[in-house]
Each structure stands twice: as C-alpha cells, then as structure tokens.
Amino acid sequence: MSQRTIVTLPGDGIGGNVLKQAIRILEAAGFTAGYVEGDIGWEFWKKEANPLPDRTIELIKKHKVALFGAITSKPKDEAADELDPALQGKGYVYSSPIVGLRQHFNLDVCIRPCRSYKGNPLNFIRRGRNNTIEEPEIDVVIFRQNTEGLYGGVEWTDPPDKVYEALMTHPKFVKNFGNNPKNELSVSTRIFSRKATERILRAAFDHAREYKYRSVTLCEKPNVIRETSGMMFKLAKEIRKSDYPDIELWNTNIDAQMMWLTKNPENYGVIVASNMFGDIVSDGFAGLIGGLGFACSAQFSEEGIAVFEPTHGSAPKYAGYDISIVNPIAMIESSCMMLDFIGENKIAVKIRNAIAKVISEGKVRTYDMMKLPGRPDVIEKGAVSTEQMANAIIENIVS
Ligand code: NAI
Ligand code: MG
C-alpha cells in the first residue's frame, strides 16, 4: 500500500508550535505518513497578496487530509498597510484563508467534541445537594453546519433596490421596518438549503449510532425562527423516524440550552445545530472542559476533503517567546480526530489514553491549566512548555 500523505498547514503565530508537537506525537504513537507543508497565512498575504495560494489548494485537493494550526486575521485597513509596497494600491482585499478553505472545498460538516479529562483543574464544577461539589463528566460532540445560515455572507447595508422591493412584499417587513429610509437598514440573511441541512443531521445521527450515544439534540429555535430552524426540526424528525428510530431526538432552544449547559451538561450527547448556533453552543461546552487549550475540531466535505484544527487562533502575543508555553492538547486532539477519520482509531485511542494519564497524574501542566497569566515567567512558576507537555504525553504512550 502506498504511504499516505498529510498536508500540514502551520499558518501563523502559535499554529506552528502546536502542530510540530502534534506530529511528534503521531510519529511516537506509530502512525506512519509523509507530510507536505502548505503555505497559508499572514506571511503569504504580505508577500503575495494571497493568504491562501493556489498551490496550497492544489496540495489539499491532491492529498485530501490536512492538519491546520492557526492563522492571524487583521482588519481590512491594517491588512492593506502591511502588504508588500509593490502590491499596494492594486485592489487586493484581505479575506481569511480558513474561511476561504471552507468555501473552496465546501467543508460543510464541522465536528467539535467536548470531553472532560479526569483531573483537569479547568473542568467545570457545580454545587450539588447538601453543599457538595460535583464535577459532571462531559462527553458531548457538536455537529455544526459550517457553510450556510447567518455566516453565509449574503448581507447588505443599504440593500440594492431589487432586494428592498422583494423585502417590501413581506407584510412583516412593511410593518416593522417599512418606515426606515433604505440607507439606514442592514440586512444579514439566514438561508438554509435542504441538502446541507440534511447532511449535517445525518452526520450527527450516524455519529450517535457509531459511538453509541443515546440521543441527538437539535439546538435551534423553531418556535420563533419558523422557516429555517423550523425546516431543520421537521427534517430531523423525518430522518429520525425513517432511518434512526433507535436514537432519541431531543429539541432544545439555543437560549435555554446555554442555561442548561451549566445545570446538567452530562445529560447531552450529540448536538446538532446551524452555523452560528453551533458556534455558540460549542464554545459554551468547550468552556466547561478547559477552554481553548482543549477545544479541537474537524471539517469535512461531501467529496472527502477533511481539515483538522484546534478551535483557538494564532495567539500572536505568545508566538515570539523563546520557549513556547501554549497548550498543545487541542491540536493533538484534532490530530486524533484525523486518525479516526482515516481509520487509525487504535492509534488515536493510544494517544488519548496517554493524554488522560498525564492530566490525571496532575504533575505536568501548561500555564492555562495552572490558571496563570500567560507570560514567559510561567515556566519558573512550575508550568511546562508546549514541548514538555508533548514529551510527557509521548512517555505515556503504551505501545
Ligand atoms: P486566540 O485563540 O489566538 O487567543 C486568545 C487567548 O486564548 C490567548 O491570548 C491565550 O490566552 C488563549 N489561548 C489560545 N490558544 C491557547 C493554547 N493553545 N493554550 C493556551 N492558551 C491558549 O484568539 P485571539 O487572540 O482572539 O486571536 C488572535 C488571532 O488569531 C487573530 O488574528 C484572529 O483573527 C486569529 N484567529 C484564528 C483562528 C483560526 O485560525 N482558526 C480562530 C480564532 C482566531
Ligand atoms: Mg467561535
């Protein structure tokens, strides 16, 4: 069998630091692959006016699977100022390469697991009956529709006449907004297609079945957002009835779900939601299991292109430290999701067990796990570096 090739996309800031350690761990756990590095991020914006060069797109198209660190995005004006002077004033406009990747490959299914590790000092705790302290065990996987809805980009300020005329055909628009001058109106649409909605719902149900979760919770607001959330709820009921009768379908509203998050997070298993609500609910759950140092994710297209990345950004503040202090676990967990995806689940289990052991022993902790402000002096205060955390995980891999 020919060797698999993984595209590595370190990107900016701490992206490269955490990615380097994740690859060391993959190798230590016995995963054999070739790696090719793809250019992405701020440096390429500055040099080439394109943070996502075509050669990188081609690499991903060829090898299909990519591990992505993080990129830096800056506001439009700053982006224009930092462009190579030879390229300035030629109409180049910066746009985020990770959003670009999602759009180019239609990475419409996003998965964000949130599992608590025993002994993580950042785990959520709550007060129980008789003043006891409880630490609920959280094992939730959020399926977020990644391309449509409120982040679909179909929006206007001072909408074009045809759009305005179309809006004026809706009695509620006339009643609620019709008295405003057109140029004082901003409109962001929330469009769902049946196809993409069905894909995210089926991905959630399939996952629940494969990993033996009892329920799928649809987290929307169908009682108020009747058309889009309503369509998603209706489809969920149909799909469940015809193809997944063994799995329960729960329906929660996004606002109530955020309240229940801290009340009974252990009750939830698979959660499925539209783009923005999925973003919100996954950040909420990530906060309960340790935050950005632990939050991993995967994004897939129908054609089998998959990109795995930590949820955090490039944390530029920490990028220049002589010794990297950031927590590599979110990136390592993301690479475990890659292993699951390509059928190397046994290696993923070995790595996850090693992470669990390091955390439960409690001797090796990055600065975030010690609740220290992120500064170079955290090492003197007993925190380990990015590399030392990876070393500890490697030492605990049982072959
Ligand atoms: P960020 O996620 O980079 O950092 C926020 C804070 O979270 C950091 O200051 C640090 O305290 C903590 N943090 C992040 N990663 C950590 C880790 N691995 N271990 C321990 N602590 C960690 O978000 P921020 O500061 O809002 O954005 C910085 C840059 O990253 C911006 O240019 C932004 O556009 C970009 N960004 C990129 C993303 C991506 O590549 N997918 C996602 C989010 C932001
Ligand atoms: Mg977010």
Structural key phrases:
Isopropylmalate Dehydrogenase; two-stranded antiparallel ribbon; 3 domains; 399 residues; ten-stranded mixed β-sheet; binds 1,4-dihydronicotinamide adenine dinucleotide; binds magnesium ion; 15 helices; alpha/beta; 14 strands
Which secondary structure elements does this structure contain, and how are they paired or packed?
Elements: E1 5-11, H1 15-28, E2 34-37, H2 42-48, H3 54-63, E3 65-70, H4 76-82, H5 97-104, E4 109-115, E5 126-127, E6 133-134, E7 139-145, E8 155-157, H6 161-167, H7 171-177, E9 186-188, H8 194-210, E10 215-220, H9 228-243, E11 248-253, H10 254-263, E12 270-273, H11 275-288, E13 296-300, E14 306-310, H12 316-319, H13 329-341, H14 345-361, H15 386-395
Parallel strand pairs: 1-2, 1-3, 3-14, 7-12, 10-11, 10-12
Antiparallel strand pairs: 4-7, 4-13, 5-6, 8-9, 13-14
Helix pairs in contact: 1-13, 1-15, 8-9, 10-11, 13-14, 14-15
The structure holds 1,4-dihydronicotinamide adenine dinucleotide (NAI) and magnesium ion (MG).
1,4-dihydronicotinamide adenine dinucleotide is lined by residues 18, 70-73, 98, 292-293, 309, 312-317, 326-327, 330, 368, 374.
Q: What features would you describe in this structure?
A:
With 399 residues, the protein is an alpha/beta fold. The chain contains 15 helices and 14 strands. The chain has helices spanning 15-28, 42-48, 54-63, 76-82, 97-104, 161-167, 171-177, 194-210, 228-243, 254-263, 275-288, 316-319, 329-341, 345-361, 386-395; strands spanning 5-11, 34-37, 65-70, 109-115, 126-127, 133-134, 139-145, 155-157, 186-188, 215-220, 248-253, 270-273, 296-300, 306-310. Strands 2-1-3-14-13-4-7-12-10-11 form a 10-stranded mixed sheet, with helices on both faces. It has a two-stranded antiparallel sheet with strand order 5-6. Strands 8-9 form a two-stranded antiparallel ribbon. The model has no long low-confidence stretch (mean pLDDT 96). Bound molecules: 1,4-dihydronicotinamide adenine dinucleotide and magnesium ion (MG).
